[in-house]
Amino acid sequence: MKIRVLGAGWFGCHLSAALIAAGHDVEIHESSGRIFNGASGNIPARLHLGAPHYPRSSATQRACQEHQAEFLKEYGHLTRSIPVNIYAVARDHSLIDFGTYQRILRDQVEFITLYDPAEFGLTFVEGGVMLGERHIVVDAARAHFAKILDGKIRFNTPIGEVDSKNYHFTIDCSFCANDSAGVDRYEPCLVVLLKGPTDKSVTIVDGPFPSLYVWNEDLGLSSLSSAKWTPFSKDCKTWGEAKALLDGLSAADVERQAQFMISDMAGFYPAIRDLYQVEDYRLSIRAMPLSGADSRLVEVVKVGERALRVRAGKIDAVVQAERIIKGMIAQ
Ligand SMILES: Cc1cc2nc3c(=O)[nH]c(=O)nc-3n(C[C@H](O)[C@H](O)[C@H](O)COP(=O)(O)OP(=O)(O)OC[C@H]3O[C@@H](n4cnc5c(N)ncnc54)[C@H](O)[C@@H]3O)c2cc1C
């Protein structure tokens, strides 16, 4: 079959490679000038274990657990372990208490409870655990797909009709840039890259809290994000609105938001001020699904006679999306 894939993020790249391997004639159209120009290239990229980050969504927990092994089988070489990976519950303003958090984790993941979080430099937390969660090395993943999809991607393509008669199927992997059906809102997001030690990650759950997460060990980079300060807005109803907001930001706006994040993190992990320096700012747009309960599941929907759209949740669901799409195009 002749298949067009829109978007060269994690979903577009993985699906293209899988469909080429299955014998299809695949054209990849990317509206920007490079692979992973959207969310996939500009995020913390943790390989979620489920419960630690999403204690309020059992559906997301199950999905993460199901997808973990198949993702690692295919892309394990693009991931790294983090020597000290701490998830801690804030003492104040948390949506969950530490006892409940541990109870939720207990059934699902292996973890070590920290006897004394202060030993790890943490303050104002009720308790913490250490986990074996891995992270995806974004630069390695970009290089991997650049190599295996070499010559197959058309960059800087105009944004045309999604449903086209010229292809048996078009698969829209634009992270819902082309249509807001099923999307609650588009969040224009900031992630800060910090230079410093890469042997430790600290994530404060569950509420408006920050997270310092190893990003690229070779470059000495960690990402800093925050449930409160990463989104510049939670009110954008279209991708265009979110893009216009990002385009209108001044360097001072971005820097101010980054400083809020750093201050928040310093409240829990004061060493951040001495050990890390801002290296870069990464902007992206997240399509948040309509579904409730903090859910982050992948969906594939038919959006025309010959058009399918992937609504991404987490990166680890790429193989699940492949399964669904192969089933849909075989019908
Ligand atoms: C702040 C933040 C933190 C996150 N943290 C994590 C995390 O730690 N772990 C995790 O698993 N997930 C995380 N996510 C979710 C993750 O980013 C997404 O699930 C995933 O990157 C989506 O990949 P994608 O390929 O669908 O979209 P994208 O990576 O956004 O790629 C879409 C591509 O489509 C292109 N495009 C747009 N319109 C068109 C068009 N009409 N024609 C052609 N090309 C087009 C864009 O230029 C872009 O390159 C996070 C998201 C955000 C925003």
Q: Can you offer a commentary on this structure?
A:
With 331 residues, this protein is α/β, with parallel strands linked by helices. It has two domains: 1-80 and 138-181 and 290-331, FAD/NAD(P)-binding domain (3-Layer(bba) Sandwich); 83-132 and 183-288, D-Amino Acid Oxidase, subunit A, domain 2 (D-Amino Acid Oxidase, Chain A, domain 2), CATH 3.30.9. Helices cover 28% and strands 30% of the residues. The strands form three sheets. An eight-stranded mixed beta sheet has the order 6-7-5-12-13-14-11-15, sandwiched between helices. Helix 1 packs across helix 8 (318-330). 47% of the residues are buried. The model has no long low-confidence stretch (mean pLDDT 96). Flavin-adenine dinucleotide is lined by residues 6-12, 29-32, 37-40, 43-46, 48, 157, 159, 173-175, 177-178, 189, 191, 225, 230, 284, 286, 310, 312-316. Residues 6-12, 29-32, 37-40, 43-46, 48, 157, 159, 173-175, 177-178, 189, 191, 225, 230, 284, 286, 310, 312-316 line the site of flavin-adenine dinucleotide.
